[in-house]
TrEMBL record:
GO cellular component terms, semicolon-separated: voltage-gated calcium channel complex
Protein name per UniProt: Voltage-dependent calcium channel subunit alpha-2/delta-3
GO-annotated molecular function: voltage-gated calcium channel activity
Organism: Melanaphis sacchari
Gene3D superfamilies noted in UniProt: PAS domain (3.30.450.20)
Amino acid sequence: MTKVAHLLGVVGTDVPEADLREAMSPHILGVNNYAFIVTNNGFIVTHPDLRPVFGDILKPNYNSIDVTEVELVESDNNARVFNESILALRDYIINQTTGDREITVKYHYDNIRRATTAERHYYFSIVEGTPFTVVVALQEKHFGYRVKIPDRFQNLNTTRTSLLDYFKDDEWRIHPDWLYCRYSYDDGDNTSFKTPEDELKHFLKRISKTDNSWNKWPPPRFYSESYDCDKELMLSLIYDANMTKGIFTEAKNDTEKKKKNEFEKRFGVTLAFVATHSGLTRWMDYEDKPKTSYNYSYNQENQQPHFIDENVYSIEEVWYRRAVEYNMVNDESYVYSVPFENENIKSTLVTASQAVFVTSKENKKKGAAAVVGYQFRHSALQELFSNITKQCYSETGCTSAKDTCQSLERDCYLLDNNGYIIASENPMDTGKFFGQVKGPIMNMMVKEKIYKKITIFDYQGVCFKRENEDDSNSSSFLYTPIHHLKQLIGWLIGRVLWLAAHSNFQWMMSKAQAIFEDIPDYQEDEESNYSADTIASFKIEGEKALKYVKINRTRPKSCDRVVDLFTLTSRIPEKVERKSMCDRPYELRKIMNTNLILLVVNGHCPETSKSENFDTLPKEVMYDEFNSSLGCHKAFNSLPRRRPKTACIRTHPDEHEIYDKMCGSSTTITITPITLSIIFFSTFNLIRFL
């Protein structure tokens, strides 16, 4: 008895990467800690540093980023010369073992403009029934502890207050990507909300009506109003809201408004804010600004977005991470920053932030609870900087204005801990990397170990190659009749080979034959399924249609990039012995309780160094030993892969009973003798002719 086999298809599903990141519970891991998923081949599924999109373009290698390309070990190795420690970790991961490893790594943030190093502890374990491994990376030395919620907030009934009382005003936001409470189904107006804050208020009201009871998850059965809440995150949020609800109340009173206005005029403060570990961000404006329909404020004069429009991600924001990191250097320091290379100096704002830690009374361990800060006008800082540096203090040995920054012989700069200019005598230098302005001096400070150089490799880079960019001469080529003849012969050979390849003469030797089934034809006129209004909605007219016909002549390609970034060390000498003033043509001092240094450069000293100015923009890595090809370099230095441990079903015990004439040979790729002969003789004759 023969059997007939029909392949019905393959079943699968897609899971959004955002859902995987949400399942990692970033609020539990805390600031500067994270989790990621790796396949059995070592490729990243989700990772905080996974950047699959460049602008609106999906990167060519977005789905083949290796774990060694995102976890960078602190070493002096060249590009793609991976350290043994990360290779050992990768081997554990692809073999789906459970364990932990500790590695010293370097990492970047702020769009690859800043970098630092840290000790990370990696914990990894298999996801049963899948080829995936989950890895949790913790900086345990500094960030291994969390803030515990007081017992009285574990049971909200004991608070005896409405949960909405903690969120009375509108000057607050929550992390838009975190799951606080959410309906399981989108049921129109009843389950859709304009903002995450509206959704939170809805569930706070609902929880309050049910005597602060929580919905069980998963429910006994799903229905239209089934919802899911992260109880621990919600309790943390409510606790933080209670602790911060009155932080700006006093400043809003009429009696304090005069002091606030005087403070704003004197120091140029425009806004104060606080962000907590539960994703809550509160702020207070020192200036009266118009608001949009969603209560987002804008600076109408300069068309700049309000602080809260770009800073709602709390522990993931750069100023939050930097403040927590710098707390380990000085727990009373404020971290100052300005936008990079901002051309509109008049509207530039300085952001200052400081971390707030809670210390345990039992073991003296501390955890990051929040970050507080404020924004003020850069013009106020510039004025203050100018006034202080131009004064002459006799106790410091100053005898005349020539010894101050007012002199043409002195160039004064205020630098942050990554070497970017916060203030200088030339306001146009604000936000620039100091190496762009004084490259030789920056190299001297690196050599003296005042700044530490950190080389970052970006293995997810995208480079754009223009058409014919390899041509060394831009003039047109002069064609002769011989060149036209060569092109004609090449075209003829190409058409013959194309015809031979598509003819597929091997079917004459195959035993497979076609079978027929009575299947109704598809409707020829597909547009008849749609109404006239629907068809009209498909049409794009006017200027919108133009962008779909423009030819993009740039071709994105995967490439490796490298950049040298810098971080301030603790080696700042108070006094330095020198043979002459130009032997070390600069002086610097650390500014107390900040991440800033004051640098004074002797402008009259000749620059004997051969080094030039440089910036912190990534540059493409060229692999000369493999003809500058990244693909060849990766092929010659391929990393080990592993088959998944799940069952691989390649045969069926009853397949020998299948009617053999119905088994095609499509799985066998062969070339016919006729095609091979045509290719051989055509190539041989072409070589003889040329």
